[in-house]
């Protein structure tokens, strides 16, 4: 690394390994941390990654992956991708609008600080409580449903869609929109008012500005947001499980199902291969997201 | 000409304000009504009258109170373990092992890209072994929760440590004869107390809301018990859910207040999600 011929070579490189006074035990300080994460993070990851290739008798097999073609797993995959895609696109769209409304206000105002911290809280607000909130709100005993029903509008007339996949689409938006606000706001802040003025001085109107200036600049950030939101709902489990107890429509629930011994379907190897399917999809999306982030960073 | 331009500007500004407040109103409806609905639901009896019966009968469910106590204990153990593990390591790496900085960061942020349910699959044999050989107490869940809160706490502590000059401070303390323990406890910790509080509150909020790992490792923490109970008595279940939610909200609002005014521009203030470079762990 050091330039050839530089006197630094003798002191920096060629550090004696044993016996020299530069030999240090500094690395010992990092041992507890790495030991801990090895047992509770690296080891579990390795168990999933390697375990998927072995059967119950520890013999190498690819059967676990062949099982991924079972019809209910294919259906779960499609349903999960669909829910993730729908909530990602809708969440990103509504989130971008909300972020724009926030970005056009006073950047140091109390309203903005309030909304940003609220978004921070709500983006984390998932799990069981979120499912309960919607059950209490529009569930069969929720006050909105009771009110609508008493006024002749029964939105569960055909089926109880809240406890099916359409319910997930609605409920997931609750944490997707705030997440988009958090991701998209920095991009909007990067838009300079001078660009609008430049458009106008060249004779462009609002449509021209959005179509040719702000739109193309913000699009990578928007797409990045869509991908992040996709990964977010793709790996969600708690809300789906608390809301949908019949069947296991989501891929995360299929993993839990293959892991649980209750239904007599204990297939740990299979749980691992579904996990790998999940990780592959999430990783792909995350890599794309990172690439788009870089593209966004070029201008904003 | 100038007058016309000004009037266009004014119409545009009015339009923009209308758009903003309509957007905020709709968002407020969508986000606040479901939470309000939980209060409403938990104070309404079958006949539709107001009642506090559900709230009052919370102590009558021993499984539930056990789960609440367990979750609070888990929150405490997780926070303490996380701090003991993370703070000295991060300081040490900054001082002595700079090359490891990127690796520590990578490892800490790794749980963001692994869905919790996948982590459960890998933790299953680990916990099987733990239960056989050490303990099958619900409190062992704290060991996994430390991993779960790692990314958020790392970010909180990283920004805290980044704002002070760790190297100069500790060299000054060392040259005055302080032991490494003194450096940590009496120099570094007081200087990053806000970051430590942030990290702690975040872990408490995350642990109290955790469901995926506990449910699939077959431990009854608060959230798992809430789902069980909801089948028998939705009113009580939702009452407790609201109470837990309020508690978590207070903690997170606490972060916003403790964090005080942003130090380096508004972009890094109130980063309660731990958002930044990587994706957020799904719920």
Structural features, described:
The complex is a heterodimer of chains A (300) and B (283). Chain A has 300 residues and is mainly alpha-helical. Chain A is 70% helix and 0% strand. In chain A, helix 2 (31-51) crosses helix 13 (268-299). Chain B is an all-alpha fold. Chain B has helices spanning 2-42, 53-56, 62-95, 101-113, 116-133, 141-162, 166-175, 180-191, 193-208, 212-216, 222-232, 234-259. In chain B, helix 6 (141-162) runs antiparallel to helix 9 (193-208) and helix 7 packs across helix 8 (180-191). The longest helix of chain B has 41 residues, at 2-42. The radius of gyration of chain B is 24 Å and the shape is flat. Residues 261-283 of chain B have low confidence and may be disordered. Chains A and B meet through helix 2, helix 4, helix 5, helix 6 and helix 8 of A and helix 1, helix 3, helix 4, helix 5 and helix 6 of B.
Helices and strands, with pairings:
The complex is a heterodimer of chains A (300) and B (283).
Chain A: H1 8-12, H2 31-51, H3 63-66, H4 71-103, H5 110-124, H6 127-138, H7 143-150, H8 165-190, H9 193-201, H10 206-234, H11 238-243, H12 251-259, H13 268-299
Helix pairs in contact in A: 2-13, 4-8, 4-10, 5-8, 8-10, 9-10, 10-13, 12-13
Chain B: H1 2-42, H2 53-56, H3 62-95, H4 101-113, H5 116-133, H6 141-162, H7 166-175, H8 180-191, H9 193-208, H10 212-216, H11 222-232, H12 234-259
Helix pairs in contact in B: 1-12, 3-6, 3-9, 3-11, 4-6, 6-9, 7-8, 9-12, 11-12
Quick synopsis:
The complex is a heterodimer of chains A (300) and B (283). Chain A is an all-alpha fold. Helix content of chain A is 70%, strand content 0%.
Average of per-residue pLDDT values of chain B: 85
Largest sheet of chain A, if any? none
Percent range of helical residues of chain B = over 70%
How much of the sequence lies in strands of chain B comes to under 5%
Shape verdict of chain A: globular
The CA-CA distance between the termini of chain B, in Å, is 55 Å
Number of strands of chain A: 0
- The helix/strand class of chain B is mainly alpha
Described by its quaternary structure, the protein is: heterodimer
Tell me the number of strands of chain B. Answer: 0
Low-confidence stretches of chain A: 1-16
Annotation field: number of helices of chain A: 13
Structural class label of chain A: mainly alpha
Low-confidence segments of chain B, given as residue ranges, are: 261-283
Q: How many whole angstroms does the radius of gyration of chain A measure? A: 26 Å
User: Which sequence of SSEs, written as H and E, runs from N to C of chain A?
Assistant: HHHHHHHHHHHHH
Major β-sheet annotation of chain B: none
| Straight-line distance between termini of chain A | 34 Å
Strand content of chain A: under 5%
Give Rg of chain B in angstroms: 24 Å
């Amino acid at each position: 690394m050091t330039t050839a011929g530089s006197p630094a070579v003798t002191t920096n490189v060629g550090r004696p390994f044993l016996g020299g006074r530069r030999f240090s035990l500094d690395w010992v300080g990092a041992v507890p941390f790495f030991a801990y994460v090895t047992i509770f993070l690296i080891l579990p990851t390795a168990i999933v990654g390697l375990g998927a290739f072995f059967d119950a008798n520890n013999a190498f097999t690819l059967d676990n992956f062949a099982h991924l073609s079972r019809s209910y797993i294919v259906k779960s995959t499609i349903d999960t991708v669909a829910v993730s895609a729908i909530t990602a696109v809708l969440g990103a769209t509504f989130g971008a609008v909300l972020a724009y409304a926030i970005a056009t206000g006073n950047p140091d105002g109390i309203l903005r600080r309030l909304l940003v911290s609220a978004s921070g809280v709500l983006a984390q607000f998932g799990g069981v409580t979120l499912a309960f909130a919607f059950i209490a709100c529009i569930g069969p005993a929720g006050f909105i449903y009771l009110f609508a029903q008493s006024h002749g509008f029964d939105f569960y007339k055909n089926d109880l869609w809240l406890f099916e996949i359409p319910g997930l689409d609605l409920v997931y938006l609750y944490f997707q929109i705030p997440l988009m606000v958090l991701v998209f706001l920095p991009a909007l802040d990067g838009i300079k008012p001078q660009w609008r003025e430049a458009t106008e001085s060249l004779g462009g109107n609002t449509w021209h500005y959005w179509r040719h200036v702000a739109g193309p600049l913000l699009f990578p950030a928007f797409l990045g947001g869509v991908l992040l939101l996709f990964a977010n709902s793709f790996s969600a489990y708690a809300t789906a499980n608390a809301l949908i107890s019949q069947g296991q429509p989501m891929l995360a629930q299929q993993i839990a199902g293959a892991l649980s011994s209750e239904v007599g379907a204990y297939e740990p190897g299979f749980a691992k291969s579904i996990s790998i399917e999940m990780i592959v999809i999430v990783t792909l999306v995350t890599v794309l997201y990172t690439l788009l982030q870089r593209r966004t960073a070029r201008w904003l | 000409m100038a007058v016309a331009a000004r009037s266009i500007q004014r119409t545009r500004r009015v339009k923009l304000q209308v758009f903003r407040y309509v957007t905020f109103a709709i968002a407020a409806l969508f986000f606040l009504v479901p939470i309000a609905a939980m209060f409403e639901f938990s104070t309404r009896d079958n006949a539709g009258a107001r009642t506090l019966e559900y709230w009052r009968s919370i102590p009558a469910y021993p499984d539930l109170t056990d789960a609440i106590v367990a979750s609070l204990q888990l929150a405490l153990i997780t926070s303490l373990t996380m701090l003991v593990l993370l703070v000295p390591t991060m300081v040490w790496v900054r001082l002595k092992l700079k090359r490891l900085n990127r690796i520590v960061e990578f490892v800490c942020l790794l749980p963001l890209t692994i869905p919790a349910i996948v982590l459960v699959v890998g933790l299953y044999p680990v916990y099987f072994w733990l239960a056989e050989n050490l303990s099958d107490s619900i409190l062992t869940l704290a060991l996994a929760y430390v991993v779960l809160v790692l990314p958020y706490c790392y970010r909180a502590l990283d920004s805290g440590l980044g704002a002070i000059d760790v190297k100069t401070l500790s060299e000054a303390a060392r040259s005055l004869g302080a032991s490494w323990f003194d450096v940590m406890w009496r120099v570094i910790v007081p200087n990053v107390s806000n970051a430590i509080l942030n990290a702690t509150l975040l872990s408490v909020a995350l642990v109290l809301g955790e469901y995926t790992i506990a449910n699939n490792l077959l431990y009854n923490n608060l959230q798992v018990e809430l789902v069980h109970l909801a089948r028998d008595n939705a009113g009580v279940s939702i009452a407790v859910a609201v109470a837990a939610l309020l508690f978590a909200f207070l903690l997170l609002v606490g972060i916003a207040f403790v964090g005080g005014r942003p130090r380096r521009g508004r972009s890094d203030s109130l980063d309660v999600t731990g958002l930044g470079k990587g994706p957020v762990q799904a719920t």
